[in-house]
Design brief:
The chain is an alpha/beta fold. The chain is about 65% helix and about 10% strand. It contains 20 helices and ten strands. It starts with 8 loop residues before the first helix and ends with a helix.
């Protein structure tokens, strides 16, 4: 059960309470000025109905209106600055917190959530919350404030007329409540559909090379169109609610005006109130249309924000992996690795079965086997990408689970099969994990990966921009770029997960020769489906269905004429 506390719109607002209070105070001044206008109009009309109205009085009332206008203009600036500024700060802090939280979550979380969905949370949902905390709060407060004071002013002019005019309001309250719940539910469906649409676009664009290669453009267009149509349908369902909601509120406002004109006209004719009072009350009633509309609009905006916040809370409530690991030790890793009866299962399916192995410091170990034999799982457990069982994996005689993650990451570098290239220059990508390295060190790492000459042939050399996800690079170039990035860190243990799959045999041979020289005295572990690639390693381990079935040098395994020997002969046509 999560120990994290769910966020609410109120909890977001309270963080910047002073800014909101200052903004609402400025808004109150504007509203008071606005509410005083009908009283001035009443005085003007009553003055004009006198037998001998004085020009000086009319001039004075005109100056009052100018003063009111100036005051409203000044304080409008302040409420915008404080309220909208606070909403922007909420947006920034929540987006930063959300992104930071994503960085703290375990790998398992990202294997279950789509990138497009998380992008929609980070951008669209937080943008909606900004409106709820800014415009929503502003409109709600403005509507309530004006409603209370207009009602009070009308009570002052004529209590009976005020009560008649407010007959529709109990019905309005029920309508706002009912429609508010429907808006929240339907907007959450809109946001969920937007996440699917974002993911559809992301998948297609990021895999554009595959789409083009297999001439799948029409299929991708069809799939995206389906997601886009679903998003449109969800929005139209929301628009239907809004389309009924606003006219109903407008009708209620019109009903209040109709009641007032009818009853107020009778009272004016019967001289229960004078013409000035009738005009002032009518202006107040005209003002009443905005608060009624504002309340409906505010409920819509705030309910949308609540729906978005519910989606964000789903992610924020996921417990992160603490960066503080009590009981773990900092270790200057040397690279002696031991596996003791290591077993591991995914969702009840055994991936590794009682694997025991000793890998001394400085050894180059190649690992091969069929797809799904447990090779990648082995090294993901070693680097704690996946948490290993207790007392099954040891580095320098220390249980991997007891080694501080920072120490483990410093000593053991894992290069996955799926390489990641970031937008930016070649230099930025190679130095990604250590921006303080020198240009000379970056160049040396590129030479180890047999990438230096190719980089220098790029326009701009190491300053060449590789483009989004490295689409301007070949698969082999991306793999070697990731390898150079890892080599630059000079790890005590380097783990390569089939990173030579896109290289030709000559380039692969050169890279492996450079790696063996670079990692001399340090531990090198490499998974490869191409057996000849690792035939020159000190030892080769062969896996089958989660079991370690063969281990030894190339010569030893060839003499056994087992799985390794068969694979080698097939792949070298012997």
């Amino acid at each position: 059960m999560s120990t994290r506390k769910k966020k609410t719109i109120f909890s977001l607002l309270i963080k910047y309470k002073y800014s909101f209070l200052a903004g609402l105070l400025a808004l109150s001044v504007v509203d008071v000025c606005q509410l005083s206008i009908p009283l001035v109009i009443e005085r003007v009309i009553n003055t004009l109905t006198l037998e001998k109205p004085r020009v000086s009085d009319i001039t004075r009332f005109g100056l009052y209106m100018v003063g009111i206008a100036i005051t409203m203009a000044v304080f409008r600036f302040f409420w915008r600055f404080f309220i909208m500024g606070a909403a922007r700060r909420i947006e920034q802090s929540l987006r930063d917190e959300f992104f930071e939280h994503l960085q703290s979550l375990h790998f398992d979380f990202f294997s279950k959530r789509k990138v497009g969905d998380l992008m929609a949370h980070t951008v669209n949902d937080i943008e909606t919350l900004k409106f709820a905390c800014g415009l929503g709060v502003l409109i709600a407060y403005d509507g309530v404030f004006l409603l209370i004071f207009i009602f009070a002013a009308m009570l002052y002019i004529s209590p009976e007329l005020a009560l008649y005019a407010f007959i529709p309001f109990p019905i309005l309250a029920v309508i706002v409540y009912k429609f508010g719940r429907m808006i929240e539910k339907r907007f959450q469906r809109v946001q969920d559909s937007f996440s699917i649409l974002t993911e559809s676009a992301r998948e297609s664009i990021s895999g554009i090379k595959v789409v083009k290669a297999y001439v799948r453009e029409d299929s991708e267009i069809k799939d995206f169109s389906a997601s886009s149509s679903d998003y449109l349908d969800k929005n139209l369902n929301l628009i239907k609610i809004w389309g009924v909601y606003q006219p109903v509120i407008t009708f209620m406002a019109g009903s209040a005006t109709a009641i007032f004109i009818w009853m107020g006209g009778i009272k004016t004719i019967s001289l229960d109130i004078n013409v000035g009072q009738f005009a002032a009350a009518l202006v107040y009633l005209a003002m009443l249309t905005w608060p009624m509309m504002a309340m409906g609009w505010a409920v819509d905006i705030i309910k949308r924000g609540t729906a978005s916040l519910n989606r964000i809370n789903e992610v924020l409530m996921v417990e992160p992996k603490s960066i503080y690991e009590p009981g773990t030790v900092e270790l200057d890793i040397q690279g002696d690795i031991e596996l003791r009866n290591l077993s591991y299962s995914y969702n009840g399916i055994r991936a590794l079965n009682n694997v025991s192995m000793q890998i001394p410091v400085g050894q180059a170990l190649g690992v091969t086997g069929a797809t799904g034999s447990g090779k990648s799982t082995l090294f993901q457990l070693l680097t704690r990408i996946v948490e290993p069982p207790e007392h099954s994996m040891f580095i320098d005689s220390v249980d991997v689970r007891e080694i501080n993650r920072d120490s483990l990451r410093d000593g053991v570098i894992y290069v996955p099969q799926e390489t990641t290239v970031f937008s930016g220059t070649v230099m930025d990508n190679i130095s990604f994990m250590n921006p303080e390295v020198t240009e000379q060190e970056v160049q040396e790492a590129a030479k180890v990966a047999e990438l230096y000459d190719e980089i220098m042939a790029f326009p701009g050399g190491f300053d060449a921009v590789v483009g989004e996800r490295g689409l301007s690079l070949s698969g082999g170039q991306r793999q070697r770029l990731a390898l150079a990035r890892a080599v630059l860190l000079k790890p005590k243990v380097l783990v390569l997960d089939d990173v030579f799959s896109s290289l030709d045999l000559r380039t692969e041979s050169l890279v492996l020769r450079n790696l063996r020289k670079e990692m001399d005295g340090r531990t090198l572990l490499a998974i490869s489906s191409r057996v000849p690639s690792i035939s020159g390693f000190d030892r080769i381990a062969v896996f089958e269905k989660g079991n370690l079935v063969e281990i030894g040098s190339h010569e030893e395994l060839m003499k056994k004429e087992g799985i390794y020997s068969g694979l080698y002969k097939i792949q070298t046509y012997e």
